[in-house]
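Hi R.,

As promised on Friday, here is the backbone we talked about, encoded as structure tokens. Could you run it through your design pipeline when you get a chance and send me back a sequence?
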């Protein structure tokens, strides 16, 4: 005989259930849960104990209607499976949950169309504000401007745009790239190539500017043939392979590579090893990366590490300021956080 299972519909405990259990009116229970001065301490204690016993939780929809807030924020990143963005999300949640907000995370997967869909979904579902790092395809900010112009709270982080007049939080991309490139020069490398993200992104422009400025400051003329772009930033591995192959098949080969983001850095190392090219014996490698295993790789990677967790925290604090402000905010700030250059084996001093 086949057993028959009955699926019961889940019903949340309500104020009426507490009132029924205690023989009180629903208005008395409601006031007790709100810690009203009209209710005695003894009754409040009785109501709270019953609420805990019955696993009562306030109805978020009812609360949002009453407060005109959902107590939730949306987050849009290119990819969660990225050390840098996962650390940012940890920072976001560390502030949001302490302040009573839930976090809803969406991934653009570096697609402009997907980003537009994510924003539409989140805003139409009533989130109180959005934190976003724009996709690699995003060179049109009209979808964000439309929301922002209606007074919807938005804060940009990492990948930002001056077209949107709002708060933003970034790391010092220019200085991080400058320090990484200058470190290579001090180690004896002069023919330094760069593998970079999409030209649409703010991080690309700032990091390549730092790279070029470090070269010029050390009397090295930048070589455009040594700058390769990976439009999807390493999310498609074949892009990195193609960029590295183009560099290493040139007649005048570089002796070092600077990579501008997490997946580009680790992808370069993987490609070089696959090709049997020694790092740093044949070519040195440095890049932006927040991977926690950088020091465990062979060779261990010299990286520019960004304060991702702190970036997430500060972006969330700024967003909550916008959400909870009693009047429209007209003045915005751009917070620039410092980086950490962690020197390891992949940039060992060049052999004479």
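Update: got your reply. Pasting your designed sequence below so it's all in one thread:
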């Amino acid at each position: 005989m086949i057993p028959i299972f009955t699926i019961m519909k889940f019903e949340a405990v309500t104020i009426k259930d507490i009132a029924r259990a205690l023989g009180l009116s629903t208005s008395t229970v409601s006031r007790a849960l709100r810690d009203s001065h009209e209710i005695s301490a003894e009754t409040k204690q009785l109501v709270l104990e019953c609420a805990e016993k019955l696993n009562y939780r306030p109805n978020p929809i009812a609360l949002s209607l009453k407060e005109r807030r959902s107590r939730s924020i949306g987050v849009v990143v290119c990819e969660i499976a990225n050390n840098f963005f996962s650390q940012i999300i940890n920072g976001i949640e560390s502030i949001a949950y302490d302040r009573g907000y839930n976090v809803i995370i969406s991934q653009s997967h570096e697609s402009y169309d997907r980003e537009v869909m994510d924003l539409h979904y989140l805003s139409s579902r009533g989130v109180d504000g959005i934190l976003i790092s724009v996709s690699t395809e995003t060179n049109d900010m009209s979808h964000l401007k439309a929301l922002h112009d209606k007074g919807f709270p938005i804060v940009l982080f990492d990948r930002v745009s001056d077209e949107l007049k709002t708060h933003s939080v970034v790391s010092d991309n220019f200085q991080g790239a400058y320090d990484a490139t200058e470190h290579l020069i001090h180690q004896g490398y002069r023919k330094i190539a760069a593998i970079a993200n999409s030209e649409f992104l703010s991080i690309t422009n700032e990091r390549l500017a730092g790279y070029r400025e470090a070269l010029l400051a050390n009397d090295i003329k930048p070589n455009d043939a040594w700058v390769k772009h990976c439009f999807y930033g390493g999310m498609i591995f074949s892009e990195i392979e193609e960029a590295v192959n183009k560099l290493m098949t040139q007649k005048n080969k570089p002796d070092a590579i600077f990579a501008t983001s997490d997946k580009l850095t680790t992808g370069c190392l993987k490609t070089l090893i696959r090709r049997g090219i020694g790092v740093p014996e044949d070519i040195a490698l440095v890049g932006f990366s927040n991977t926690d295993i950088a020091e465990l790789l062979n060779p261990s990677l010299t990286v520019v590490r960004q304060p991702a967790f702190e970036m997430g925290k500060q972006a969330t604090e700024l967003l909550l300021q916008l959400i909870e402000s009693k009047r429209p905010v007209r003045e915005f700030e751009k917070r620039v956080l410092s980086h950490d250059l962690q020197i390891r084996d992949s940039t060992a001093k060049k052999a004479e």
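One thing I noticed while checking it: The mean pLDDT is 92.

Thanks again,
M.
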